[in-house]
Amino acid sequence: MSDTPTAGEHRTPELEHLDRPAWLVAIATFVIGDVSTTAVGLNLGAVETNPVALAAIDVLGLWPAMLLLKAVVLGLVGLLWACSPEKFRAVVPTTLAVWGAAVVSINSYVLGVVIA
Questions:
Q1: pLDDT at site 116
Q2: What region does 73 belong to: left with phi over 0, alpha with psi -120 to 50, or beta?
Q3: Which segments of 1-116 does DSSP mark as H helices, in order?
Q4: Measured between alpha carbons, how far is 80 from 104 in angstroms, rounded to an integer?
Q5: Could you tell me the pTM of the whole model?
Q6: How far apart are CA 35 and CA 74, in angstroms?
Q7: At what angle do helices 91-115 and 19-26 cross, to 10 degrees?
Q8: 36-to-28, 30, 40, 52, 70 alpha-carbon distances in Å
Q9: Average pLDDT over residues 55-71
Q10: Quick count: other Cβ atoms within 10 Å of Cβ 45?
Q11: Closest CA relative to residue 107, chosen from 27, 39, 24, 58
Q12: Count of CB atoms situated within 10 Å of the CB of 14
């Protein structure tokens, strides 16, 4: 490695270290947070409003459907991440993490309504 500029683009050390934490937060919110709050909500009487998830749950059952749907989305997002320019790759899992946080917030609100 050299500190002299060369042709092409290089990631700064700061960006190289953002991918892993962004993916960890994305998995924590989009997968663990959404799956757990959805499962608790459905077991307490909440209703799934996503027609794709509802159809998958009807066919496969709650856990297999939710894990399959999350795996498909993670696969597609992973493909998008792999095809993205390196210096912008952290944006992909960060966006998924923000989406996951929004879904967990909505699910938490629904849980509060169902419990109250």
A1: 87
A2: alpha
A3: 13-16, 19-26, 34-43, 51-60, 62-83, 91-115
A4: 23
A5: 0.81
A6: 13
A7: 20
A8: 10, 10, 6, 18, 12
A9: 96
A10: 8
A11: 39
A12: 8
- Structure-block tokens of residue 96: 């998924």
Q: Name the token pair of 18.
A: 């953002």
pLDDT digits (tens, 9 = 90+) for 12-59: 556 567 889 999 999 999 999 999 999 999 999 999 999 999 999 999
Structure-token pair, residue 74: 């993670």
Give the HSE-up count for residue 83: Cα atoms under 13 Å, Cβ half-sphere. Answer: 6
Length of the chain (residues): 116
79: which DSSP letter?
Answer: H
Q: Alpha-carbon distance 101 to 109, whole Å?
A: 12
The gap from C-alpha 49 to its chain's centroid, in whole angstroms, comes to: 18
72 or 10, which is more confident? 72
CA distance 102 to 66: 17
